[in-house]
Amino acid sequence: MAYRFLADAVMLVHFAFLAFVALGGFLAWRWPRVRVLHAVAVGWGLVSVLAHVECPLTAWEDRFRRLAGEQGLARGFIDTYLTGVIYPREYLVAIQLAIGCLVVVSWVGFALRRRRVVRR
Fold it and tell me: Among 1, 23, 4, which Cα is nearest to 71's?
């Protein structure tokens, strides 16, 4: 039971991390120090997508699921919970580009807001 709880907790942290990658730049508008953490998260996201590096959270969740007597993750986190579930597999690249656009818009917005504050 404890392993199942840990697996579910890691899954929730993973979803939160993905949300932070997509939307964390907007948090920096209010809390500028967040931009450093967001840059690191986006960097990790790029490395994992472009170089196909498995996220440690995926490995932890898989291990905890197996220790709980479950099947574990047959595919990666995104393939298990998002691709083919939330959006069709053929939209994966479009979704990745949309998330990239969100990140760019959030950073451009941050820079514009920062510039406006400095000019006052």
Answer: 4
